[in-house]
Amino acid sequence: MSLVETRPAAVVTVGASLSLFRSELGLTFRRARTITLLGILAALPVLIGVVIKSQTDGSGGGGGPAFIAQVTQNGLFLVFTSLAVTLPIFLPMTVGVVAGDSIAGEAASGTLRYLLVAPAGRTRLLAVKFAAGMTFCLAATLAVALSALATGAALFPLGQVTLLSGDTVGPGTALFRAVLIALVVAASLGGLVAIGLFVSTLTGSGIAAMATTVVLVITVQILDTFPQLHAIQPYLFTHHWLSFGDLLRQPIYWDNVLQNLGLQAVYVAVFGSAAWARFTSRDITA
């Protein structure tokens, strides 16, 4: 009896899933498109920091929105400002591209049928695609946050941080909150990953899936601005994205943050189930 035969089936399944996940991560992050998207995201905080620095130097400073004024006083606030600027548009667009291409791109290139001929299984493959999408969300968020942290430290002073509630915390506590905010922002994109994955199972064209996902994000963002739609806006997956600002208060206001994460979990459950139903019944290998 071979060693493989004596190993529990659960161990074999977990090992195969991890191997498939590592392969998917390598495929995702080796693509020139992914590297370019992460590079653009990392460049945005540098641009924001340079603009703020140029507008405050020699012009009296202190003007503009309170969030911008906080950046000039402490470079750590560039992390929060950059996430607030990129979350409504740039982060969702990059995530929409990756999530939308996850299944449809494989189908268009002809590699999907070979993945399914191998003992991967459609459910496992779908779960791995979702996990890779969430990993990209974290990588994209960290690209923004780390670039903003380095730029803020280079252009502005660091030290005690005055929170939005008026309380002052030390740099260590502020840095911990920045990490917590980055994690919340990455998790806030979970609903979009599930939606993109579902859209990706509906078509064999990666470009069509990416475009549909990105257009959907923009459409929902527009709908979230109409006062006439206030009854449905709390249920839109983008509505609570900026709730991470409550993590900059003392004590932290968790209500809106937890509501946001709960809403994302609902979208993941609904559209993840829809993607599974579509993908497991789709004729791909024929």
Please describe what this structure looks like.
- Strands 1-2 form a two-stranded antiparallel ribbon.
- The chain contains 12 helices and 2 strands; from the N terminus they run ααααααααββαααα.
- It is 71% helix and 1% strand.
- It has helices at residues 3-6, 9-30, 32-56, 66-73, 77-86, 90-109, 112-117, 122-155, 171-188, 190-201, 206-223, 255-281, and strands at 161-162, 168-169.
- Helix 3 packs parallel to helix 8, helix 6 packs parallel to helix 10 and helix 8 (122-155) runs antiparallel to helix 9 (171-188).
- Strand 1 (161-162) and strand 2 form a beta hairpin.
- The longest helix is centred in the middle third of the chain and has 34 residues, at 122-155.
- With 286 residues, it is mostly helical.
- The model is unreliable at 1-5 and 58-65 (pLDDT under 50).
- The protein has one domain.
